[in-house]
Amino acid sequence: MNINLPGRPFSLALRLTFFISLSTILGFITFTWIMLHSVEDHFAQQDVNDLQQFSARINEILHSPAAQEPQRVKQLQDLIAGYRDISVLIENSHGETLFSSPQGSKLHLAKEDASFLSHLNSGDVFLWKPEVNSITGNQSPLINNQTYRVIVASGQASFGGKQQSYQLIIGLSINFHLHYLDALKKKLVAIAIVISLVIIFIIHFAVRQGHQPLRKVSNTIKNITSDKLDERLDSSRVPIELEQLVISFNYMIAKIEDVFNRQANFSADIAHEIRTPITNLVTQTEIALSQSRTQKELEDVLYSSLEEYNRMTKMVSDMLFLAQADNHQLLSEMVIFDLSVEVGKVFDFFEAWAEDRNVALLFNGRSCLITGDPLMYRRVLNNLLSNALRYTPEGRVITVSVLEHEHNFDLTVENPGAPIPEEHLPRLFDRFYRVDPSRQRKGEGSGIGLAIVKSIVALHHGKIRVESDAVSTRFIISIPRM
Ligand SMILES: Nc1ncnc2c1ncn2[C@@H]1O[C@H](COP(=O)(O)OP(=O)(O)O)[C@@H](O)[C@H]1O
Ligand SMILES: [Mg+2]
C-alpha cells in the first residue's frame, strides 16, 4: 500500500516527521551542548579564582616580615592541610625544593610538561594531566589519573636565612569536577535520547492524526459509485486546507452526474420518442380496420400515416446527424463564404411561411466573410428561424443580425413573443427537451433542433447562448473568425 515506488515523492507524514524531529533534536543537542559548556566554564572560573586566592594567601605568608621561617612553614602547612585537593611546591631558580606539600613534589613535572608554553609567566594557569609513565619515583595512585589545574607564581623571599627568588606552583585536582561533568554528560545524553524518541513518536502520531481528515475525505470519495453520484462532501466540515479540494471535487462530481444522467436518459428518451408515433400509427390502423371503409377514408388514413412516417424519418435522420456530429464525422471542407448570402437563402425558403403567418423577416448587418461549412450554417439558421416563426405573434418582426468583432462574430436570431421561463433556459439545448412537452403531439418537432444547432456551433469552435425576457427571445451564436 505505502510502498515507495520509484518517482513517487516521500509520504507527507514521513517528511513532516523527519523535518520536525530533526529540528527538535538539533535544538535539543544545542541546548545540551550550551548547558554542558556553561557548567564547565563555571567550574573553570571557580578553579581559577580558588587558585588565585590560594596563591595570594601563600605569597602573603612568605612575605610576612614579622614571622620567623619555621613559623611561616608551619603556617603554610596549616593552610594546606585544610585543602585536600591542593598540592603546593616552591622551588628556587636552580630547581631545588624550598617547600613541598605531601603530594607537592610531583608538580615539578607539571612545570616540565608545561614547557610547551614557551614562557611561563607569573599568574599563568594551565591544565595538567600527568602521564603515568612520566612519573618517576612515587607512583602513588592518588597522582595517577588525576587532572590538575595548575597556577605558577614567582617572587622573592627569604629562605634558609638568605633572600632567594622562588617559583610557586600550586596544583588543584579537578577530578571531582570532571567526574561530575562526565556524569552530567551521560545523564543529559540519555535524557536527550529518550526525549527525542518520545518527540518522534508524538510527532508521528500528531502528523498521522493531522492527516485523518484527508483519509476521511478519500474514503468518502472511494464510496461514491455511479449510483451514488448525488452524494456531496461537506466543505464546511473539513480543515480549511482541504476546503478548496472538496469544493473542486463536488463541482467535478456535479458535472459528471449531469453528463451521466443525460446519457442515462438518452436511451429512454429515444424509446419514448419513437413509441409515441408508432402508437399513433397502430391506433389509427386498428380504427381503420375495425369496420369497412370507403376508398376515400382509407386514403385519408394513409396520408395521415405518411405524415407520421415522414416525421419519424426526420427524427431518425436528425438523431443520426447528432451522433455523427458528436463523433466529429461531419466536418466537411471548410470554405470562405459570405454569411449574409446564406441568411438571404434561408429567408427565401421561409418567405412563404412567414407571409402566411404575417411575420416579417429582417436582416441586420452587412456582407460578412467567414470560414466554415455553409450547409451547416444554413441548417443552424433553419432550425432557429423555424422555432422563431413558431413563437412570434402575428404582425411582428424576426431579426437576424451579424455583428463582426476583431476575433469573432456574433450571429443573433431574435423574435418577440412570450418569454421562456428562466428554469428552462439551461436545458433548452438538450436533446428532446421541450418547454411544453404536449406540443410534440401537435406535430411541432421532437426537441432535437437546438441540440443540432449547438453541435454545429461546437464543430465551428463557437458558443451559443439564449436570452429571453418580456421583449424578445434571442439566440446568440459567437464563433471565432479563424
Ligand atoms: N424562439 C423561441 N421562443 C420560445 N421558445 C423557444 C424558441 N426556440 C425554442 N424554444 C423552445 O425550445 C424547445 C426546444 O427547441 P428545439 O430543440 O428546436 O425543439 P423543437 O423545435 O423540436 O420543439 C422548444 O420546444 C421550445 O419550447
Ligand atoms: Mg425546433
TrEMBL record:
Keyword Cell membrane listed: yes
GO CC terms: plasma membrane
UniProt keyword annotations, A-Z: ATP-binding, Cell inner membrane, Cell membrane, Kinase, Membrane, Nucleotide-binding, Phosphoprotein, Transferase, Transmembrane, Transmembrane helix, Two-component regulatory system
Domain of life: Bacteria
Domain HAMP span(s) in chain numbering: 208-261
Histidine kinase domain location: 269-482
Molecular function terms, GO-annotated: ATP binding; phosphorelay sensor kinase activity
Functional note: Member of a two-component regulatory system.
Protein name as it appears in the record: Sensor protein
